[in-house]
Amino acid sequence: MFTEGAARTWRQALENASPAPVLPDHPTYRQILGIFADLGRPLRARDVCEALDLPIVRKNTDEIRAKLKRLVSQGILVEAEPGLFTQPRP
Questions:
Q1: pLDDT tens digit at each of 90 positions of the chain
Q2: Number of H helices, E strands in the chain
Q3: What is the pTM of this model?
Q4: How far, in Å, CA of 39 to CA of 2, rounded?
C-alpha cells in the first residue's frame, strides 16, 4: 500500500512523463528499426541503405538520412555524433 507521499510522487511522475514516441506510418521506418535491432550497433545512412539492399547513390542515402533524422526528432533514435545513429540506451 502506498503512503500519501509516495502516491503523490508517483502521480507527479506520471503527469510529467513524456508521451511515448510514435513511429511514423511508412513501413520503411519499421524496417530501419529492425536493422538497428538486428545489428545492435550505431549505423550511418549508408549502412542502412546496404542493409535495405538499396543502391548506394546520393538520392537513397539522403532519403534514409532524412528518415533517421526524423526518428531522432521523435526520440526513437539518437544521433551519437554527426551522421552516426543508434538506439537510445534504457
A1: 556 665 566 566 656 656 667 778 889 999 999 999 999 999 999 999 999 999 999 999 999 999 999 999 999 999 999 999 999 987
A2: 4, 2
A3: 0.76
A4: 42
